[in-house]
Amino acid sequence: ETSLYLCTSEEVANISGAYFDNCKKVAPKPWAEDDTAAERLWALSEKCVGFKYPES
Length: 56
What we know:
Elements: H1 2-8, E1 19-21, E2 24-26, H2 35-49
């Protein structure tokens, strides 16, 4: 339901990068902004697919 709301509602047409739950804008969960967890997930993903992106 939330996905359809975000695709079709004029109320949110100009909102980008926000989190929504039950058709309402919400704050992200703390783990969604955890840089250490993101790095671990990225490394695990590279390992799972057998490809390592070059460091920039």
